[in-house]
Amino acid sequence: MKLVSVLGGILVALYPLLVFMGLSHDHGVWVFGLIFAVLCYRVVFSKAITAMAKLLRFGAAIGVVLVALGMLLKQQHWFLYYPVAINLVLATGFYISLRAKSPVITQLALLQDPNLDERGRHYTATLTKLWLVFFVINASIACATTFMSLNLWTLYNGLISYLLIGTLLGGEWLYRKWVLKV
């Protein structure tokens, strides 16, 4: 079951490349059938215990609807909205966590250090705000790419956005290690 979850996660991460392959070649039925099955699996079998896990399951449900609409209506634009939806779902989750006074990044930090001091809590709350802004900007750019060529949509959503996420993660880690010395 764990292997299926990992493979499903990899396939979801490869969504932009799979969409490109499905729309630009004659593999659409198979590719979109696979994506549909993986997203359905994530909706039905995910162990959504935390609020963020529930939001991600909701994001997968949105993906199921978008892929189903694309396949049933034979309109490719439905497939292109999934990255927009996922970024908005993540932004929503981070925003809700801030409003509930339990920021996502603080929750993750508390798993590693249950005695996180006030300075650490403030830092992780600020970092949660940074990620919220990132997801809103990323959703906006992903939305803009839906009006561009499939090549540009795939380049941004399948590569550039992942590089930006990696840059933010890596930059924050370096900042924490070198500046904060944590």
Automatic annotation (TrEMBL):
Lineage summary: Bacteria, Pseudomonadati, Pseudomonadota, Gammaproteobacteria, Alteromonadales
Protein name from the UniProt record: DNA gyrase subunit B
Membrane-spanning intervals of the chain: 29-48, 55-73, 79-98, 130-153, 159-175
Alphabetic keyword roster: Membrane, Transmembrane, Transmembrane helix
